[in-house]
Amino acid sequence: MKKKLIAGNWKMNGSLDANEALLKGLLSGVGQPACQVAVCVPSVYLGQCQALLAGSVIDLGAQDVSSHEVGAYTGEISPSMLKEFGVRYAIVGHSERRQYHGETDGMVATKVQRALGSGITPIVCVGESLAEREAGKTEEVVKRQLAAVIHVNGHCISEIVVAYEPVWAIGTGLSATAEQAQQVHAVLRAQLKAATSNADRIKLLYGGSMNAGNAASLLAMQDIDGGLVGGAALKAQDFLTIIAAAV
Ligand code: PEP
Questions:
Q1: Which ligand 1 atom sits nearest the alpha carbon of residue 170?
Q2: What is the pLDDT of residues 59-100, one digit of tens each?
Q3: Which of 18, 108, 144, 194 lies in the 20 to 30 Å Cα band around 53?
Q4: Is 70 helix (H, G, I), strand (E, B) or coil?
Q5: Is 79 in the pocket of ligand 1 (CB under 6 A)?
Q6: Which CATH superfamily is domain 5-245 in?
């Protein structure tokens, strides 16, 4: 059976002391989880977290990756640089990057291509805004976002992870219901099935106010293969409870 993946997105949170305390808390409680586990940390802390996680069951992730490999791109970090720090996953196209940094579907697709080319698994985020949901456009939006990624990466699309993150649920405490999330995941799975015969092995994560209280019901749904967790990933006990629910 496919193992679920629980990935924490620390966003722009942390400090050397706080990271150490959080990772030590996770490592002391995680044991041998039934799922895969990752933490996606701010890039300046990759070296610190790589050292703290060495030899453990928790993988390291980044929160973005450049669409370029090398050169005059001030502030950017290439996938091969991430690889040097033992990074396994990179979040790509998070709604905060789309919203605050103008990332387009095309840019996201190119970043995915660049990550895959360096052996980093992209966690590709898709999701509709509240206005789009209220206008009945959820399916249209997530399909458009995923189609751009499939178009550019068709031959290796089964190597990606997809995270469905309704924008209205991120950081709001207002999670999608398990049924709402499953409905969209089924749409995404069907779209992936049309693109590859390996669609069943692609992990589809749910993200958006997943927490210790709602994780089990979300993770019980047929097409929900894990979670991308923001706020609750910053508290060791909450994140451990979510990991334990991912069976
Ligand atoms: C996220 O930022 O990817 C996220 C899901 O955040 P939160 O869990 O805080 O809603």
A1: 10
A2: 999 999 999 999 999 999 999 999 999 999 999 999 999 999
A3: 108
A4: coil
A5: no
A6: Aldolase class I (3.20.20.70)
Catalytic residue among 132, 159, 165, 185: 165
230 within ligand 1 shell (Cβ under 6 A): yes
Sorted by where each begins, the domain ranges of the chain are: 5-245
User: Does 1 score more than 90 pLDDT?
Assistant: no
| Buried-state track 2-36, b at ≥16 Cβ within 10 A, e below 16 | eebbbbbbbbeebeeeebbebbeebeeebeebebb
Instruction: State the Cα–Cα distance between residues 143 and 125, nearest whole angstrom.
Output: 12
Q: What is the Å distance from ligand 1's center to 64 Cα?
A: 15
Q: Which amino acid is at 70?
A: V
pLDDT, tens digit (0-9, with 9 covering 90-100), for 152-161: 998 899 999 9
The widest CA-to-CA distance across the chain, in whole angstroms, is 48
Contact yes or no for 46/87 (Cβ under 8 A): yes
Q: Residue 15: which residues within 8 A CB-CB, separation 6 or more?
A: none
pTM: 0.98
Tell me if residue 134 is catalytic.
no
